[in-house]
Design brief:
The protein is an alpha/beta fold. It folds into two domains: 109 residues, Roll (Urease, subunit C, domain 1), CATH 2.30.40; 288 residues, Metal-dependent hydrolases (TIM Barrel). Helix content is 30%, strand content 23%. The protein has eleven helices and 18 strands. The radius of gyration is 22 Å and the shape is globular. The N terminus is likely disordered.
């Protein structure tokens, strides 16, 4: 490669060699079966060739015997500003912006070390996530980051302390415009109350259909998708009627139980391909457990999840990482395992956190697959996750945009 011309003289710079990663098997993010004895060639931040057997281009060879190569995992619902402590809301309130930035960097790097090479932050404080997104360009230890900024909520609504409170149609339009002007990747709106905010209730909606529709129309005018935090059935149905692109949680929780969605609603979710972000996963922590109110609801929550999945809804596996001690920012492998434990094929669970997750966050042209021309985001794990999903916990290597983590 030529890089300089001085008074007719040319200085030649040797082109960096390719990195060729070899392993026992490969899951490409879309198929049902593994490729045996694969190799993947990385040229900088891009996959340039994939094959199997003894062939392949010349380059620096990385041998990973017994390992499986996968696309880097994608967690479409995290909160990097929350520190996954016993009380993350109080911890956040006690930090200035500089301390929050450090918390977010630590969280992002923890995710990356687990093979989560892309995260979508669906609620930060004061748009700090945008700074972290920019830092990715010069920091190869950070995963790719998508940002929603402060979620839009009512003035005293769920997560209002993040700074996204808005009232009335005019206030909502202004909020969407501010987010768009700041450069967010997605609009997040709190259609229902949530468990982290006292005074709100998960079963009750926070906005009318008309208000939600204004948010959707304004966001779409700026080319931005809208995903709605929605637990209770009224908030879910209102958000669907308003035309949202995605729904987060989708638990159908009532004040004392779990509702059963109608066949019509399920059909609408399937037919419109509304992205359902199922926030799952818990890391085992000694002395920590789910709240009793969640434990009592689990059988019906699981039944609804199975029904949506079996009906063909566009489901993705995410985590809500950061909101509790059971949900650190590397919890996604546990969420994938939880789905597989429900009888969903491991390949299908992996697709929901790779290629399908990439579609959901608008990155399907370069993320979520091991394919030529895609970003060099690779996860290598010991064993075979297509037969034993717990292999995801035994990380052998991670590449972020072609850079191997130490």
């Amino acid at each position: 490669m030529l890089d300089a011309h001085t008074e007719g003289m040319t200085t030649a710079v040797e082109r960096p060699r390719l990195t060729v990663v070899r392993a026992a098997r490969l899951f490409d993010g879309v198929g049902d079966r593994a490729v045996e004895r694969p190799w993947v060639a990385l040229d900088g931040d891009t996959i340039t060739a994939i094959g199997s057997g003894d062939g392949g281009p010349e380059g620096t060879v990385v041998e990973l015997p017994g390992a499986t190569l996968l696309p880097g995992l994608i967690d479409n619902h995290v909160h990097l500003a929350f520190d996954a402590s016993v009380d993350p809301v109080a911890a956040l309130a006690g930090r200035d912006d500089e301390a929050v930035r450090e918390t977010m960097i630590t969280a992002a790097r923890r995710a990356a070390a687990a093979g989560i090479t892309t995260v979508r932050d669906l609620g930060d404080r004061g748009y700090l996530g945008l700074e972290l997104r920019s830092a990715v360009e010069t920091d190869p230890t950070l995963p790719t980051i998508l940002v929603a900024g402060p979620p839009i909520t009512t003035p005293d609504g769920h997560c209002h302390f993040l700074g996204g409170g808005a009232a009335g149609v005019d206030g909502l339009r202004t909020a969407v415009r501010e987010h768009a002007d700041r450069g967010v990747d997605v609009i997040k709106i709190m259609a229902s109350g949530g468990m982290l905010t006292q005074g709100t209730k998960v079963e009750l909606p926070q906005f009318s259909v008309a208000e939600l529709r204004v948010v959707v129309e304004e966001a779409h005018r700026y080319g931005l998708p809208v995903t709605a935090h929605a637990h209770g059935l009224p908030a879910i149905t209102d958000a669907v009627e308003a035309g949202v692109d995605g729904l987060e949680h989708v638990t159908f929780m009532t004040a004392d139980g779990v509702a059963v969605p109608s066949d019509r609603l399920v059909s609408t979710l399937v037919d419109r391909r509304i992205v359902l972000g199922l926030t799952l996963g818990m890391t085992p922590v000694t002395g920590a457990a789910l709240p009793p109110g969640i434990v009592s609801r689990l059988p019906k929550l699981i039944a609804n999840l199975r029904r949506l999945w079996q009906a063909g809804a566009f489901t993705t596996i995410s985590t809500d990482a950061g909101i509790a001690i059971l949900k650190p920012h590397d919890v996604l492998p546990y969420a994938i395992g939880q789905v597989a434990d429900l009888g969903i094929a491991p390949a299908e669970a992996l697709r929901a956190s790779t290629s399908r997750a990439a579609v959901a966050c608008g990155l399907s042209d370069r993320k979520g697959r091991l394919a030529v021309g895609y970003d060099a985001d690779l996860l290598a794990v010991a064993g075979d996750p297509l037969t034993d999903i717990t292999a995801l916990h035994d990380v052998r290597a991670v590449w972020l945009r072609g850079h191997r983590l130490p």
